[in-house]
Amino acid sequence: MDAPRNPGGAGAGPGIDLITLIVTDYDEAIRFYTEVLGFALADDRPATTTDGRPKRWVVLRPPRGGAGLLLAKADGPDQQQAVGRQFAGRVGLFLRVPDFDAAYRRLLDNAVPIVRPPRDEPYGWVAVFADIAGNHWDLLGPAGPA
Prior knowledge:
This protein is α/β, with parallel strands linked by helices. It is built from three helices and eight strands, in the order βαβββαβαβββ. It is globular.
């Protein structure tokens, strides 16, 4: 039997490229994720649904790399009900930042809802916040003084 081929090169394997977040408004979500959380708008172009209706293809990327966010405008009542509840009230997304204090201050300055205040854990500082839709995120910073 031949050895398995790895066309991606040594050590290559799967990776998560995009995570879909259902939103009610593209532009409000773009503003939140870029201006408050610091993501970069990587793509924003017209597209169509599978049945030919217009939509947008909107991708945001974190500046330090990692999986991007694909914003999908809610289409119909089932999707509208999922806005802000994609993780059933649990933390579903984790934003690691190099400067926890500065990132936390930015959340407060922008009136972002804080679900759980900062606490020191063995893996670093963590606070839970809700994004523009209500999805819960962990804000994660390095261990040490905050």
